[in-house]
Every structure is written in C-alpha cells, then in structure tokens.
Amino acid sequence: MAEPQAQKRQRTDESFQSENQPLTKKAKTTSELKLGAWESWVFPPEFYNRLSEVQFTHRVFDELQRRNRSRRSHPSRPVETSLSILSGNCRHQDVARFARQGGPDLSDLRGYPYPPVESQWTVAMAATHSYNPSIEPPSLALASSQANNVVQIPPETTPIDVNFGTHLADHSIHLYDTTPPPDLDELKAAMTIPRPLLSLSNFSESDFRAFLNSVRDAGTVDELLVDVIPTLLGPKVFNYATAQNEIFDNLRPLTDGSLAAAKPHLYDGARPMMVYKSIRDYLGEIIVPWTAEGAPVVPNFFFEVGDRGGVDAARLQARYHGALGARAMHGLQNLWIEFPVYDGKAYTYSATFYEGMIQIFAHHVTAPTKEGFLPQYHMSLELPRYGKFVASEVH
C-alpha cells in the first residue's frame, strides 16, 4: 500500500509544480504573424522618390527625419583649424591630412536650427539613385492648405493619405476622371427596388431606432462590422462568399510594389469551387487574394468603413481595392484571349460607410493610353447619388 501512496503523492507534487510554473508564451499563428507584419509596414523610400508630387504629411516628415538620420555621420574629435587651409594656401597632402583628422571644429554650430523642409528634401533626394538635379524637387513647405488635406487615420490601418492617392493616380488608378462612365442604368434600376426585409412589416420603427443607436454606439471598425454592417448587407446567399479583414498577400502588385498588401474591411467573391482549379492556378496572382482553404476568389465587391480615418481614407481604400477587383474580373473575362477586350462596363463595385452614410461606386477598366502602358482603372462617381443611406439625427 505504501507504493501506491507514494505514486499518488508524486503525481500530486507534479501537479502542484506544473500549476506554479510560469506560463510559456503561446506561439503566434501564421495569421497573427502576417497581421503584425502588415500593421508595422511603412512606405519604402522609393514610394516617395517616384511620386509626381509630394504633399506634406506626418509620414513625409518621418521619412525626411529618417533620411537625415541616415546621412548624419558620427561626430569626429574636433581639431584646430588651419588658417592656411581655410585661405587656400596649402598643399593637397595638407588638405587630405586635415580631413582625416576630422576637419574644422564645428562645435559652435550645435543647436543651430535645421534648414527649411524643402532643403532637407533636396539633400535627402540627392542621396538616392533616382535624384535628377535638373528636375525641381517637390515642395514640402508647411502650407496650411496642405496641412488641412492630411488624412488622419488610426495606427492599425495602412498609411492612407493624400500621397497614397497621388501614387494611385501616377499608376493609372483614377478617381472621378473625365472618362465617360460605364452604363449603369440596369444597376440603378435594381437599386431602386425596395428590399422586402426592410419593409415596415419586417423592420419596424423600433428596429430602425435600435439600428441607429448601434451606429451611434459603435466606436471602432470592428464594432461597426459586427453590429451595423450585417443589417445593411442583408442575408448571405450561396453563390458568393464573404471574408473580413484578410490580407491580400497572394496578389501580384497592381502598381510598383511599394504599397502594402491590400486589406479590405470586407469583400465578396466567388466560392473556390465555382472556379476550375486549372483557372485558379493559372490566374492565381490576379484572382486568388489569399490562399487559405475556402477563401473567396475573384473579389468584385468591397466594403470600407470610415473610422477615425474619415470618409477620405475609406474612399482611397475603396479606390485601390476596387481596382484590384476590376483587374481580377477583367483577367477572368479575357482568359485565353490573345488581345484583351475592354468593353467599358463595370463588373466590380465598392461601398463606403461613414457616419451613417453609404456611398456606392463602380469600377471599370479601359485600354492603356499608349502601347506598353498599364490599363486604366476608373472609379465612377455616378452611384453615390443613387445609393445613399442616412442614419441621421441620432440624439
């Protein structure tokens, strides 16, 4: 009997030790690692080097500071200046030795204010391979008009600001341009049909007031996506799939590769089983946003929620993500075709939600303006006037 008691006591001691041992840190999943890398992503230097026009934002200032720090050398031991060297009456060997010893004493310049921002940009750009001294550098002066255009966004989103919009325009992703919009008459007619689930018999006045309260109380994008957006989108149907806050890390870059992977708040696409595997493999970098099992493919509807970033940031995200969807649809439609066909019709849509208002946009592709250039992606302004929902006067 003694032996079983000893074994029992041993198991008890082991249990006590395991309960009092410090907990080991749980290993992060692949999705958590991807999300962490995405959230810490910043624009690379070439993003700013290639912009046709740079406007001053907090991120531009951070980039200037980073470049200035990288150019700043470690201070050398001050040496006594030589009057003969400063006057020019010296030999080449004297100049070389003077430089090796640290040069003139510049300690009296410590604390002197930095030069204007534009001069800093010129110095920083001169250090890059893409700098061309014959081209006038973009002005980054702290003008009040530019300061008002800075799009303030929460830290957990991609860096969306006015320079992001300039980058899109530089790569033929247009917003409200002069291109004739696609024919949207059929879609507009469909949007005027009332949804039965929102009739008074199914969605009472008290339901509507409760919905308005949920709009008012939602303080984050996640709360809006959980408590508000499902009511607007209605019930799911089988022939499409939905995903939320997923990183599009399997797509080929739409511009020059200097942007972070897209991460729409919500998007709809086809179920993988609806597209032949051979086609998914062939067009994978265009129509398969991410490779998890069951992930929606061929994205063609995006929903962006404006939080602290405001409606401007939501529209920029919709503009970028809608172009990705338009490329996916166009690639699928032109499969096995030698020369792509551009019919000017919209097959991709996006919506933004900000402060109780929905705006709906159409995205379509047109042919490149010149041979060898990229296709032109367009975001139509025609739909918002037909697709507004206002949750107003919530007191």
What portion of residues is helical?
25-40%
Order of helices and strands: HHHHHHHHHEHHHHEEHHEHEEE
Roughly what is the average pLDDT, rounded to an integer?
Answer: 74
If strands are numbered along the chain, what order do they take across the biggest sheet?
1-7-6-5-4-3-2
Major β-sheet annotation: 7 strands, mixed
Distance between the termini: 75 Å
Number of domain units: 2
- Which class do the helix and strand fractions yield? alpha/beta
User: Roughly how many Å is the radius of gyration?
Assistant: 29 Å
Low-confidence residue ranges: 6-24, 76-81, 116-157, 384-395
List keywords for this structure.
395 residues, alpha/beta, 16 helices, globular, disordered C terminus
Structural commentary:
Residues 1-29 are annotated as: Disordered. The chain has 395 residues and is an alpha/beta fold. It has two domains: 56-148, no CATH class; 162-379, no CATH class. The protein is 38% helix and 11% strand. The protein is built from 16 helices and seven strands. The protein has a seven-stranded mixed beta sheet. α16 (310-333) links the parallel β4 (297-305) and β5. α4 packs across α7. The chain starts with a helix and ends in a 16-residue tail after the last strand.
Task: Give the secondary structure arrangement, pairings included.
Layout: H1 2-20, H2 30-39, H3 45-49, H4 58-71, H5 83-87, H6 92-100, H7 117-126, H8 144-148, H9 162-170, E1 173-175, H10 185-191, H11 205-217, H12 221-227, H13 229-233, E2 241-244, E3 266-270, H14 277-282, H15 284-287, E4 297-305, H16 310-333, E5 348-354, E6 357-366, E7 376-379
Helix pairs in contact: 4-7
